Amino acid sequence: MSHEDATHGPAPLGDVDPDPMHRAVDSLAAALHEYVDAAVGVRAEFGATEADEDPRILALEHRVGTLNGTLFDALHDALGMHPDLTTSVWEPGAGHDEAAHQDLPEGTIRAEAFYLGFVVADPPAGASMTLDGVIEMLDEAGEQAASRLAEGGYQVLEWAASRGMAPGFGDDSDEDDE
After folding, report:
1. I need a labelling partner for 148 at 20 to 30 A (CA). Which of 36, 54, 70, 91 fits?
2. Measured distance CA(136)–CA(120) in Å, rounded
């Protein structure tokens, strides 16, 4: 769709049929419910790491991602909007501001965590690369990004490349348990 059509113009849209958008939401919701049911079942069979890599879970995650794209397209095509509906945001807990200011260099106002995520599918059968190689590539890219941020005057307090979920910065509880 062209960004020069009426849906992207400055004038309010008149009569818009919301049914295709609701159908996209319903399909996504059904897939999310299916994911929850499958995740509960898979975790009853396997540990967390194995569950993250279970083909049933990966297939459902791919399906949810595809349906997120379908919802984006439905909203974009009908309304001309560019919805950011897949970003995860956690509200800070009580005392968050005080904790964020501890252990920071003099003059630093605050620090925040930023994430750049990728959903990477298995390479084609017979390919020389594996999903294990992805973390190596991301680690190299992370080192380059941290250097560029530092060169730009930012204080990079921590950085990490992770697989399966965002890294937990400042959370040493896992290390203490080992």
Report:
1. 91
2. 13
**Domain that residue 24 falls in:** 6-79
Residue 79 near residue 71 (C-beta atoms within 8 A): no
pLDDT digits (tens, 9 = 90+) for 5-22: 778 788 888 889 999 999
C-beta of residue 83 within 8 angstroms of C-beta of residue 72:
yes
> At residue 75, what is the residue type?
L
Q: Which two three-digit tokens encode residue 75? A: 């909203």
pLDDT at 129 over 60: yes
Do residues 132 and 53 lie in contact, with contact meaning Cβ atoms separated by under 8 Å? no
Q: Which of 47, 79, 111 is the last residue of a domain?
A: 79
Calculated CA dihedral for residues 148, 153, 154, 156, nearest 10 degrees: 60
Residue 72 lies in a domain: yes
Q: Which residues fall within 8 angstroms of residue 42, CB to CB, at 6 or more apart?
A: 51, 54, 56, 57
